[in-house]
Write a structure and sequence with these properties.
The structure holds 2 protein chains of 2 kinds.
Chain A (H helix, E strand, L loop, with lengths): L1 H28 L4 H6 L5 H10 L6 H13 L13 H36 L4 H15 L2 H15 L14 H35 L2 H8 L4 H38 L5 H10 L3 H29 L10
Helix pairs in contact in A: 1-12, 5-6, 5-8, 5-10, 6-8, 7-8, 7-10, 8-10, 10-11, 10-12, 11-12
Chain B lengths: L1 H4 L9 H10 L1 H23 L31 H36 L2 H15 L3 H12 L3 H27 L3 H8 L4 H37 L11 H10 L6 H28 L9
Classes of the chains: A mainly alpha, B mainly alpha.
Organism (chain B): Pseudogemmobacter lacusdianii
Family (chain B): Belongs to the binding-protein-dependent transport system permease family.
InterPro entries (chain B): BP-dependent_transpt_permease, MetI-like, MetI-like_sf, OppC_N
Chain lengths: 316, 293
């Protein structure tokens, strides 16, 4: 377990170093220097010189990358080109909104996904199973931001039940929840379909096992077997998938947050990309990538702890 | 993995039989019809569009659907239906070429990693793992920031984020086949490296790749529309379902018909390609695992 832990964490750190160096170097591969790209047509020589010095662009590339990493380690992700505020402050300001949205989306998706998956297993082979199958595939296929736009039109504009923009008043939980309902619906729906399929597939695998046959021989009812015996085992792969799913939730959040003009990491980085605000984009990318790698690595370690077979990956 | 289980490696896909199986699967057949329909529209787009999709007519702005404009008009008075039809062409062109290109590059890298020397394999695997362990959207946004938005950047981003999956798939299969008897026999008989790779290995590993490629097309269509919605993909005034949805969003309260109309082909396309991909997988190789959304 110790060897696995050390190697897994080492791999994550190496990946992070490679990716960030590549990304930082990429800025220099394209024609035109970042300062004038960021400033655009408004660039005057003085402004450019000031920005170049502030971003440390007058130093050699290797020094810049080293500086970037040593600053990042100390929690300094640089400063916004326009507002001159620290990048980290801006991220931490909106991160709770995105996390709240992500947890809410996954929360309802897990509950409904598992219920639908169980229903499909109970009625396996029937028309209901087929219908649920088509429904799950459709939920996976339809882009979350189109669902966001349609639900915005129906529930916020036509019916006026829920707010169309923003994240609610700070400190007012009910308004924050109301503002998060539609975005969470749009993001979660993909996961309902995905989890329903996953739960169905892993449960069908378990249903053939001997102990299920024993349970049936003892006269337990089918729903009881599904809920008490099969679900417990089938839930493990579901947990494993959720950590990896963080990346795709983040991706949906980028689009959905923009649709609802909701402050969050997604809308923060999109507006920064549009303005070519390098420090803000690179800082957010570094922050979210680190966060993502942390989640995935932690999930892998958890799985290795639960299931010793996983630990053999590095041995071959 | 899948092909290795077959004692007799097959050279080509048994198409007629698998096509019959695809048509027997109602979902797969529906997907195939939707995809053929969209492809037909994309090909004949310029001839069936009732109006010039770029022609601005401010007097006729934000019209509701009518006999003259079946899907209404946008904030500049451009005909929505014509723009949707040309948007179909853009969406399919970008999705199919980018996915195809990524498939070819991924295949080459996979062959090199699987069949080449250990050290090249090590380096390639590390690079591919680094690329695929990034949250896709973060990587895409970083590349767009550096290169500036546009159709070419969009295609590059799609190709880059798709390569690792395909290369790994091919590599894994090549590794299992590399020491199979028929490959060793070829080597003993003195077959050249290109002959072993292209004539003997490739036909045996390309089947699963085709399935995975077809299942990735809807994801790419979604990414194109999403980035175009954020104004980071296809540049206006060039029509794309994504930037039309954005135009519709800005005039949502005055005229909701644009958002409704622009969402329909996007949903149709992602559903059609997903159904087709699922159907193809079931018909050709049921053992291949479903990937993450």
């Amino acid at each position: 377990m110790l060897t696995y832990t050390v190697k897994r964490i080492g791999l994550a750190i190496m990946v992070l170093l490679i990716v960030m160096s590549a990304m930082y170097a990429m800025v220099f591969l394209v024609p035109g220097d970042p300062a004038s790209l960021a400033l655009g047509p408004r660039a005057t020589p003085e402004l450019k010189a000031e920005l170049t010095a502030r971003m440390g662009l007058d130093q050699p590339l290797t020094t810049q990358i080293l500086n970037f990493f040593s600053n990042a380690l100390r929690g300094d992700l640089g400063y916004d080109v326009w507002s001159k505020r620290p990048v980290l402050d801006q991220i931490l300001e909106v991160l709770p909104n995105t996390l709240f949205l992500g947890i809410l989306s996954l929360g309802w998706a897990i509950v409904l996904g598992i219920v639908l998956g169980c229903l499909a297993v109970v009625w396996r082979g029937t028309a209901i199973d087929t219908l649920l199958g088509v429904l799950s595939v459709s939920m996976i296929a339809v882009p979350p931001f189109v669902i966001a736009l349609y639900s915005l039109l129906i529930f916020a504009v036509w019916l006026n039940w829920l707010p169309a923009i923003g994240a609610g008043k700070p400190g007012d939980w009910s308004s924050q929840l109301a503002a998060a309902l539609l975005p969470a619906f749009a993001i979660g729906i993909t996961w309902v379909g995905y989890l329903a399929r996953l739960v169905r597939a892993s449960m069908l695998e378990v249903m053939g096992a001997n102990y299920i046959r024993t349970a049936r021989a003892f006269g337990l009812s089918e729903p009881r077997i599904v809920l008490r015996c099969a679900l417990r085992v089938a839930i493990i792969p579901t947990i494993a998938i959720l950590a990896v799913g963080f990346g795709s939730i983040l991706s949906s959040a980028v689009f959905v947050e923009t649709v609802f003009s909701r402050p969050g990491v997604g809308s923060l980085i999109t507006s920064a990309v549009a303005k070519r605000n390098y420090p803000l984009v690179m800082g957010t990318v570094l922050f979210m990538t680190t966060f993502y790698l942390f989640v995935v690595t932690a999930a892998d370690l958890l799985m290795a702890w639960l299931d010793p077979r996983v630990r053999d990956v590095f041995r071959s | 993995m899948s092909s290795a289980a077959d004692p007799l490696p097959r050279k080509t896909l048994p198409l007629p039989a698998s096509l019959r199986r695809l048509m027997a699967d109602r979902m797969g057949a529906a997907g195939a019809f939707i995809v053929l329909f969209l492809l037909a529209i994309a090909i004949i787009a310029p001839w069936i569009a009732p109006y010039d999709p770029l022609k601005i007519n401010v007097k006729a702005k934000l019209l509701a659907p009518s006999w003259e404009h079946w899907a209404g008009t946008d904030h500049l008075g451009r005909d929505t239906l014509s723009r949707l039809i040309l948007g179909t062409r853009n969406a399919l062109w970008i999705a199919l070429t980018a996915t195809g290109l990524a498939g070819v590059i991924g295949m080459i890298l996979g062959l090199i990693a699987g069949y080449g020397p250990r050290w090249i394999d090590g380096i390639l695997v590390l690079l591919l793992d680094s690329l695929s362990s990034l949250p896709m959207i973060m990587f895409a946004l970083a590349v767009i920031t550096v290169l500036g938005p546009g159709t070419q950047t969009l295609m590059l981003v799609i190709v880059l984020v798709s390569i690792p999956g395909y290369a790994r798939l091919i590599r894994a299969q090549v590794l299992t086949l590399k020491n199979a008897d028929f490959i060793q026999a070829e080597r003993v008989m003195g077959a050249s490296l290109p002959r072993i790779l292209l004539v003997h290995l490739l036909p045996n590993v390309v089947g699963p790749l085709v399935i995975v490629l077809s299942m990735d097309v809807p994801v790419v269509i979604m990414l194109e529309a999403g980035l175009s919605y954020l104004n980071l993909g296809v540049k206006p005034p060039e029509p794309s379902w994504g930037n039309m949805l954005y135009d519709g969003y800005t005039s949502l309260r005055q005229q909701p018909s644009l958002v409704i109309a622009a969402g329909i082909p996007l949903i149709l396309a992602t559903l059609g390609f997903t159904f087709l991909g699922e159907g193809l997988r079931d018909a050709l190789d049921p053992k291949l695992q479903k990937r993450l959304p």
